[in-house]
Amino acid sequence: MNYAFHGDFDTPQLRSLKSHLADIMDAHGHAQTPDPGQAGLVFHEVLPERPRPFRRMSQATFVVGVVAWNGEAWETPLQALYPLLVRSLSNLTIAAAPHRPLVLITPELGHYTVDIESPDWEQNLYERIAPLASSHLVIDNIFDPDLPESLWAGTSVTQDMREASRRLADWDLFPSPYPLADTLPPEDYKHLKRVFGIGGLSYGNLSARHEGNTFWMSASGVDKAKIGTVSEDILFVKGYDAEARAMRISIQPGSRPHRVSVDAVEHWGIYQRHPEIGALIHIHAWMEDIPSTAMNYPCGTVEMGDAMSELLDQDPHPERTIIGLKNHGITATGPNFPDILRRLEGRIRTQVPMM
Ligand SMILES: [Zn+2]
Predict the structure, then answer these.
(1) d(Cα 162, Cα 226) in Å, to the nearest integer?
(2) What pLDDT, in 10s, does the model give residues 158-181?
(3) CATH code of the domain covering residue 320
(4) Which residue of 116, 138, 242, 249 has the fewest C-beta atoms within 10 A of its own C-beta?
């Protein structure tokens, strides 16, 4: 993975950060290229007063937004910095404030620090960036208008999904989707839709097995409290097309589907490996005494799926358990939604601990 810098980096903090980043990237054998268009990883300077995106040529380019921050609102970094991550269309944002640790922000609402006073901080920072930047996204959808007519109105499972999502919304576990269309200038929104096919940014999802390894799953970027229409915001996932690196979705002919949740590839992997699992719920919340993944891979990557599967493989009861996704949330497995909800009720912490 080669890398590039994009932007001026001419404040004292950013000049210094840039040279440390270059040193540690070089030390790990990554080559710097002068052309950000050719790089797998782009460090892109984001101006707080005028955040602009780096125009990726493809989804595979991982963009780290780098911000010279005045450190205002230090106690609430998400409020101060999340809008900059969104406006700059970054996969990860690093904010450097004077006399402060670096703050890192992820699209999953993760926020954590790297202390630049510690002796190994460059290495620590590298370990926070490289695994994420080199992970593989699977977020394309291929829609086939071949959903059998008997499924057009859904099944008892899609009815259960509707009810479960309303319950979770009542418990305040489904924050409203980030209003991307209202936040981004129209040309940036169009760029995001073209490169990633994304129309919204939402948090959490539900899925349930149909037959074999096919499953129903909530759509991406929609208000989960209101899902209910098959082939629009509840999608039928047929499988994963490895050659096209895309999820294959069956829809009713003539319908106008949203994209399926970005986590579909992980859920697909779990249903394949664990035939005893009937349903999955993912929320951005936490629970005491659960195992957690070691790395906060981005949603919708092969690596995130593998990390989740590994935790499930180690669990004595993978069919009815709850695993933590570091700095992100939990995924609960069970035979069906009512069973999972019974085990979640009253045990959820809305604050995800940040590590
Ligand atoms: Zn999530």
Answers:
(1) 8
(2) 999 999 999 999 998 887 788 888
(3) 3.40.225.10
(4) 242
Query: What is the distance between the alpha carbons of residues 71 and 176, in angstroms, rounded to a whole number?
Result: 27
Our count of domains for the chain comes to 2
Name which residue leads in pLDDT, 116 or 178. 116
* Residue 266 CA, ligand 1 centroid: distance in Å: 11
> From ligand 1's centre to the CA of 301, what distance in Å?
12
For 67-95, what is each residue's pLDDT tens digit?
Answer: 999 999 999 999 999 999 999 999 999 99
pTM of the complete model? 0.91
Confidence at residue 18, expressed as pLDDT on a 0 to 100 scale: 98
Q: In terms of domains, do 183 and 258 share one?
A: yes
Ligand 1 centre to CA of 155 (Å) is 26
Please tell me whether residues 113 and 252 are part of one structural domain: no
Distance 243 CA to ligand 1 centre (A): 25
Residues 127 and 144 in one domain: no
> 144 and 129 in one domain?
no
* Tally of CB atoms within 10 A around 13: 20
User: How many CB atoms are closer than 10 A to CB 11?
Assistant: 13
| Residue-range definition of the domain harbouring residue 34 | 3-133
Q: How far is the CA of 203 from the centre of ligand 1 (A)?
A: 5
Q: Could you tell me if 166 and 305 lie in one domain?
A: yes
CA of 204 to the centre of ligand 1 (A): 5
Quote the CA–CA distance of 66 and 15 in Å, as a whole number: 11
- 3-class secondary structure, 93: strand
Q: Of 105, 133, 161, which marks where a domain is finished?
A: 133
In a domain, 229, yes or no: yes
**Cα(318) to centroid of ligand 1, in Å?**
20
CA 105–ligand 1 middle distance (angstroms):
14
Ligand 1 center to residue 283 CA distance, Å?
A: 6
> Last residue of some domain: 104, 133, 162?
133
Distance 50 CA to ligand 1 centre (A): 28
- 3-state DSSP helix/strand/coil % of the chain, to nearest 5: 30, 25, 45
